Amino acid sequence: MTIDKTAYHILVIEDNPGDFALVEDFLFEQIAAPVILRAENYKAAAGILCKNDCNFDIVLLDLSLPDKTGEPLIREIIEICAGAPVIVLTGYADFAFGVKSLSLGVSDYILKDQLTSLSLYKSIRYSSERKKAVAAVEASEKKYSELFHLTPLPMMVFDLDTLQFLDVNDATIKHYGFSREEFLSMTLKDIKLPEDIPVLERNLENDKVIKKTNSLGIFRQKKKNGEIINVDIQANFIKYKGKEAKVIIATDVTERLNYIKAIEAQNEKLREISWMQSHVVRAPLARILGLIPLIKDLKEGNDEDKKRMLDYIFLSANELDDIIKTITDKTIIPDDEKSGK
Predict the structure, then answer these.
(1) Which of 250, 211, 255, 222 is nearest to 234 (CA)?
(2) Is residue 275 a part of any domain in this protein?
(3) Which end of the chain is more exposed for a tag (fewer CB within 10 A), N or C?
């Protein structure tokens, strides 16, 4: 296995010593000599991040700190982290909050139960590369052409007035399936779902008022083959050949969102199974256990009562068998859920 020799400076904001030790071990498995600093709460993290000499490549953030949690914590850290990508590490699978956190500017959202050294390293590499791409777009129009066409992330430029595509890079053509000529004859609305266009128009009007680089959030788009994808949009205003335009980086997060959704679905099934085992199974089982001593106490020759009780046991056993089959069926993951569709 090749070890990354990049000198990453990483801040881990984590109050749990065990979780920090695990993250630290994972980092050293993939990176030769990472510089790791730990903050045990929000106050300590803010103190570190606000120092002028503290430049971090990555911030790993636990969402449940003693002095701040959830969305307020994300907003505060994003504001003071000086542009360093923030990767959320959480023990709770919450699909809706996962989507919300990505729209707040978080670079990635990873469940601790699913964390491995490789998945953490891939997220760090992805976040670092994305930061470089966004920083380069902001830095200068002079290097626009080289950056635009060589970046591995889909990038598009469109006219603010007409929404006509003015340029797209090779990654966009490959990911969406349209040729360059097709893109240049289209507008931004052509890759949107009809019901999402009013939202697009409102967002663009708001953007004209606040002209700055921003994370617009997660939106649905469609490829040439009709596939619907979810993309996280980063945007910046530019002058393109004399026109007021906007350049956007569209990161496909469909697989990530499907993953969070699949975990939520599995957790819901486990809750259903737990309820069935503690409630539904008890009824037929209690009837069987209640009938057994009655049968034992029956006197010789009382065949009619014995037959009736055995019939009750048979019915209860069949009911219990059906419940067990239902529980078994719930543990089977359909093929479409396995693939994340």
Answers:
(1) 250
(2) no
(3) N
Structure tokens at 274: 């737990």
User: Angle at the Cα of 56 (from 52 to 62), degrees rounded to 5?
Assistant: 115
pLDDT tens, position by position, 291-304:
777 776 666 656 77
Number of other residues whose CB lies within 10 A of the CB of residue 122: 13
Rounded Cα distance between 46 and 52, Å, is 12
Residues 203, 256: Cα–Cα separation, whole Å: 24
For 279, phi and psi rounded to 5 degrees? -125, -60
Domain assignment of residue 149, yes or no: yes
Q: State phi, psi for 96 to the nearest 5 degrees.
A: -65, -45
24-58 pLDDT, tens digit per residue, is: 999 999 999 999 999 999 999 999 998 866 789 99
Q: Is residue 271 part of a domain?
A: no
Q: Do residues 130 and 175 share a domain?
A: no
Integer Cα distance of 4 and 117 in angstroms: 12
Task: Report the domain count for the chain.
Answer: 3
CA 76 to CA 64: how far, in whole Å?
14
pTM of structure: 0.50
Helix (H) and strand (E) counts for the chain?
13, 10
Query: For the domain that residue 40 is a member of, what is the CATH number?
Result: 3.40.50.2300
Written as one string, the DSSP assignment of 156-195 is EEEETTT-BEEEE-HHHHHHH---HHHHHT-BGGGGS-GG
Tokens 């729209």 correspond to what residue? 103
